[in-house]
Each structure stands twice: as C-alpha cells, then as structure tokens.
Design goal:
Shape: globular
Number of strands: 0
Helix content: 55-70%
Largest sheet: none
Order of helices and strands: HHHH
Number of helices: 4
Length: about 100
C-alpha cells in the first residue's frame, strides 16, 4: 500500500506563474523579436488543447520546451559566433519535439 495518494501532483509541477516568468525572460533575451511571438503562438495552441482535454500537460510541455530553448541560448550563440561548422547539425525539432 502506498503512503501517497494516487492523485498527488508530480514533483516537477510548474509554478502557476511559470509562463509569465518565462515570457518576461524571453522579452529580455537577444532573440525576443522572433521568440516572443512564437512562444505566444505555442501558448495559445496549448491553451486550446488544454481546454479540450481538461489537462494542463500541453501548457507544461510548452513552458518546458521554451525553458530548454532559453537555457540553450548562450551555448548556441557562442557556437554560432565562434565560426564553427554546423553543417552536420541536428534539427531543433528532433531535440525539442515538434510544436503543438
């Protein structure tokens, strides 16, 4: 018998303000001009999916994907500005998944 209820939230649950905090970080980043509208499109699509499915999973997926992109930005920028050959690169969709 388990000591925890089966309906307990996973330990990696996002804070209710995670999307707003992420949007603020995106607005402050160097790629804000293109990333903020892309995030807002992804968020709107996930919100529609969440309304239809009665699940917050689509919203959490969008926040986690964009957190990953934002976390990888310094490394990607350093790589791009370093003059490295990226012809053998991996498509970002393969890494982050396709957009909802």
């Amino acid at each position: 018998m388990s000591a925890q209820p089966d309906h307990a939230a996973p330990s990696s649950a996002l804070a209710p303000t995670a999307a707003a905090q992420l949007r603020a970080q995106l607005r402050a980043c160097s790629r804000a001009e293109s990333w903020v509208p892309a995030f807002e499109r992804d968020w709107a699509t996930a919100l529609d999916d969440a309304r239809l499915s009665y699940s917050l999973t689509p919203l959490h997926d969008v926040v986690r994907a964009w957190q990953g992109r934002l976390a990888a930005l310094p490394a990607v920028t350093a790589f791009s500005e370093g003059g490295m050959d990226d012809s053998d690169g991996v498509d970002a969709a393969d890494v982050f998944g396709t957009r909802p």
